[in-house]
């Protein structure tokens, strides 16, 4: 038995190590390529090491200040934050209504929340492109916010609905008896008790809006309105630029999401698993 446990444990560790290397290697290669001097990349592209004394940050400077990525970062932040605020606010009110209120069509709405999420983005992008083009709204970051909201709101509603079902109804009834309205109950009771779920919804929404590429590529034409993902594609398409700049831009896109995920990981796990028994 001890030998079998030792073998199983060894295989488990080996498997986890293998997949960790497979996942971490592209990110490691991206960072190394962005910090190495261009001459060293050209002369020895297969080198996986990095000489501390030869670290070169010029690629990050060029990307930020010579290729407009400061503007792209501000656009992505605006789109992502607005999407998070709208998605969390609407999902909180909608999930509470589906969970607590009684109205005609409640069951249908409750079970059809994720219907729109079943359609791939590639199926929706062409009709939306035609509609927004005819309406003259296509080249706008606010259109992206609207599309991202439609993408993230169903999952946000589903996650919060499952969490709200685990909250004690008696506290809400007591608040209503004391004269508190529905919005007061949501603000004073539901939101404080749902902090883990709200944090997970906010992080999920921010990640979608920050990393999304397809809709940004189809809808945005003006460089001043580009988001980070759209800007990286434009940068990569410039044949006269080195791939070192593309790697530096990719690092700047990845690092904020990685930091946010590690910082909110505990809330993300609690929010996504809460309500699993009752939801």
Description:
The protein is built from 14 helices and no strands. By secondary structure, the chain is mainly α. It folds into two domains: 1-56; 57-273, Orthogonal Bundle (MetI-like fold). α1 (2-35) crosses α13 (243-263), α4 (69-100) runs parallel beside α7 and α4 (69-100) packs across α10. The radius of gyration is 23 Å and the shape is globular. Mean pLDDT is 82; it is low at 275-279.
Summarize this entry quickly:
By secondary structure, the chain is an all-alpha fold. It has 14 helices and no strands.
User: What integer value in Å does the Rg equal?
Assistant: 23 Å
- End-to-end Cα distance: 39 Å
> What would the CATH topology of the largest domain be?
MetI-like fold
Counted beta strands: 0
| Strand composition percent | under 5%
Give unreliable regions as ranges. 275-279
What is the fourth-level CATH superfamily of the largest domain?
A: MetI-like
Largest sheet: none
Mean model confidence by pLDDT = 82
> What's the structural domain tally?
2
Give the class from helix and strand content and strand pairing: mainly alpha
H/E order of the elements? HHHHHHHHHHHHHH
Q: Just name the CATH architecture of the largest domain.
A: Orthogonal Bundle
Determine and state the CATH class of the largest domain: Mainly Alpha
Q: Determine the number of helices (DSSP H or I, runs of at least 4 residues).
A: 14
| Oligomeric nature of the chains | single chain
Fraction of residues in H or I helices = over 70%
**What gross morphology would you assign?**
globular
């Amino acid at each position: 038995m001890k030998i079998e446990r030792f073998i199983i444990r060894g295989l488990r560790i080996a498997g986890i190590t293998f997949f960790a290397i497979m996942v971490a290697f592209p990110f490691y290669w991206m960072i190394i390529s962005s910090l190495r001097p261009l001459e060293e990349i050209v002369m020895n592209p297969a080198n996986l090491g990095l000489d501390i004394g030869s670290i070169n940050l010029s690629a990050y400077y060029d990307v930020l200040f010579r290729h407009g990525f400061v503007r792209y970062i501000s656009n992505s932040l605006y789109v992502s934050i607005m999407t998070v605020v709208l998605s969390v606010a609407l999902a909180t009110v909608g999930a509470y209504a589906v969970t607590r209120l009684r109205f005609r069509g409640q069951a249908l709405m409750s079970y059809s929340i994720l219907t729109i999420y079943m359609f791939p983005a590639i199926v929706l992008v062409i009709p939306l492109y035609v509609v927004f083009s005819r309406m003259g709204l296509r080249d706008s970051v606010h259109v992206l916010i609207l599309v991202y909201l439609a993408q993230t709101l169903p999952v946000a509603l589903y996650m919060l609905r499952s969490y709200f079902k685990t909250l004690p109804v008696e506290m809400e009834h007591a608040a209503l008896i004391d004269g508190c309205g529905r919005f007061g109950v949501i603000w004073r009771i539901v939101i404080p008790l749902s902090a883990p779920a709200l944090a997970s919804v906010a992080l999920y929404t921010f990640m979608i809006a920050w990393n999304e590429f397809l809709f940004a590529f189809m809808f945005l034409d003006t460089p001043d309105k580009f988001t980070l993902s759209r800007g990286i594609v434009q940068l990569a398409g410039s044949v006269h630029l080195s791939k070192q700049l593309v790697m530096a831009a990719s690092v700047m896109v990845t690092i904020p999401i990685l930091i946010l995920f590690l910082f909110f990981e505990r809330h993300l796990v609690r929010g996504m698993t809460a309500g699993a028994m009752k939801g």
